Amino acid sequence: MASTKRLLPLDGIKVIEMAGLAPAPFAGMVLADFGASVIRIDKFTLKTNMDILSRNKRSISINLKSPIGTSILKRLICYDTDILIEPFRPGVMEKLGLGPDILCNLNEKLIYVRLTGFGQEGKFSNIAGHDINYLAVSGILSLLGRKNENPMFPLNILADFAGGGLISVLGILLALIERLKSGKGQVIDVAMVDGVKYLSTYPYLMKLTNQMWTKPRGENILDGGAHFYEVYKTKDNKFMAVGAIEPQFYAELLKRLNLDANLLPFQLDSSKWNNMKQLFTNIFKTKTQEEWTQIFYKSDACVTPVYELNYKIPEPTPKLLRTSGKLINNIKYFLKPGEHSREILKEYGYSENEIKEFQLKILLMD
C-alpha cells in the first residue's frame, strides 16, 4: 500500500549550517520549515546558543580547530550533504581547510553558500558590520527617514533577513534547479549589501529616471512627504496607516473623512502637503482607532489600523496548498549546542567507540 505521508517540497535535502547570527539561521530555518534536514554546527566551546531561529534543526558541536574535528565535518559534508551555509568573514573557512576549493572537490554536488555583509572582496569585506551598516553602504539608508532629520534605520529585517537570509534561500533554490540539469553544485556568494540593493531596484530606478524620488529625503510620496501616505495618531493614542496613492483611492479617503475634494488642493500639489497633513492629523485625533477601523472597513481608501506585534509565531510562507511548510507545535526556542552530536555521528557511520574516543580527546560535546 502506498504511503499517505505528505511530502514537503525540500524533503530529502540535507543542509549543514555553520552556527552564526540572524541571516544564516533564518536561511536554515526556512529550508527546515519546508522539509530540509538541517544540522547546525556549533562552536565546541559554546555551552548555550541564543539563536532562536533553530526550529526543526539538530545540533552537533565539533572542535573545528582540531584536524580530527574538521575531518568529521568533511565526512558529514561528503557523505550526502546538499547545501553548506557559512556566515563567516572571508578566509575563515579556508584557514580551517574547509574552503569551497576543497569541499566542492570532495562533493561535486555541494551547494556552498557564503553569506557575508560586504562580500568576499572590497574595502569593507573584512570588517564587522550589522544591518545598519549594510543599509548605509548600499545607499538605501540615505532614503529612509524624515525631512531635516538623520536617516532612520528600520528593524534589522531589511538587510539581515531579506537581503541576506532570504536571498540566500533564493540562491539555494536556483542552484538546486540548475543542479538537476548539470549534476553539479556551485558556490553562492551572498553579500547583504548587494541583496538589499537588489531588493531596492524599484526606488533605485525611480530615482534614476527622476520619477517618484525627485526631492530630498522625507519630501517624496513614499518616504513621508505626502499626507496621503502617512501614519496618524488617533484619539486613544493608537495609529492608522494611510496609503491612498491612486486618485480613486484618495477620493475614497476624502469621502470617508467627510471632506469635499472640490474645496481642497490637488492631491499631488506638494506645496500644500504640510497643510493637508495638519488637517488629517486633527481629523484622525477625533476618533479612536477602532472607530476609524469601522469607518474604513471594506473600503478602498487604503487605510488600516497599526496593530501591535502579536505573539503568535508566524507560519511558514508562501503557502503551497499541496505541500506547504510545517510548523511544529512544541517549539524549543533555543537549541542546545551539541544536543544531537551522538545521534548524528551514528547516522554518519561512526561507532560508539569512535564517539567515546572523540569525547575523550575533547573533540565534540554531547
UniProtKB/TrEMBL annotation:
It comes from Rhizophagus irregularis (strain DAOM 181602 / DAOM 197198 / MUCL 43194) (Arbuscular mycorrhizal fungus). Pfam families: CoA_transf_3 (PF02515). Belongs to the CoA-transferase III family. GO terms for molecular function: catalytic activity. Keywords: Membrane, Transmembrane, Transmembrane helix. The lineage of its organism: Eukaryota, Fungi, Fungi incertae sedis, Mucoromycota, Glomeromycotina. The chain crosses the membrane at residues 157-177. It comes from the Eukaryota. Signal peptide: none annotated. This is Alpha-methylacyl-CoA racemase.
